[in-house]
Each structure stands twice: as C-alpha cells, then as structure tokens.
Amino acid sequence: MRHIALFVVLATGIALAPVAVAAACYADYKAKQDNPLRLHYGVAEVSQCASGIAETELRARLSASGWTLLNVVSVFDESGLAERKESAGPYYLRF
C-alpha cells in the first residue's frame, strides 16, 4: 500500500510539473511600400518557427503600418539574432 501511495504522489507531481516554455522564434523578411517606393529588411519575433506561420503573422503586422510583405527570408532561434541586427537597422524587432 505504501508503494502505491508513493507512486500516486510521484505521478501527480510529474503531471502537474510546468511545461517547458518553447524557445523564441524569429523571422527575417523583406517588405515594401509604394508611392514612393521604399524597401526594408527586418527581423521580427514570431509565435512559431515555421515560415508559413511567420508569413501570416508578418503580413498582418506590416499591413497595419502600410507595408507589404515581399517574402520571409528565414526563420531561426535566438542564436541568429546578433548576426542580423546590423542589417535590419531600425527594423530590428520593430514589427
């Protein structure tokens, strides 16, 4: 009986343990505005590391500010942020 009680306590503890937080995901992209034509390269945080999801999220965010998403270049984790910061300039984590 004592072993069953211990098993129940351990199983409950494992079931209630916090789920690991998913790693942050980012996407780099290219966007444009018309009249006059303006282009920019940017980096943004996205909810999942999947290019289709990143594209959907970025299209909505950029559109709200008058930009048109041209393409998602890539999706990556935090390890790729530093190397893209300078290239993105003012559009680094802006949208």
From TrEMBL:
PROSITE patterns: PROKAR_LIPOPROTEIN. Keywords: Signal. It comes from the Bacteria. Residues 1-22 form the signal peptide. This is Lipoprotein. It comes from Roseobacter ponti.
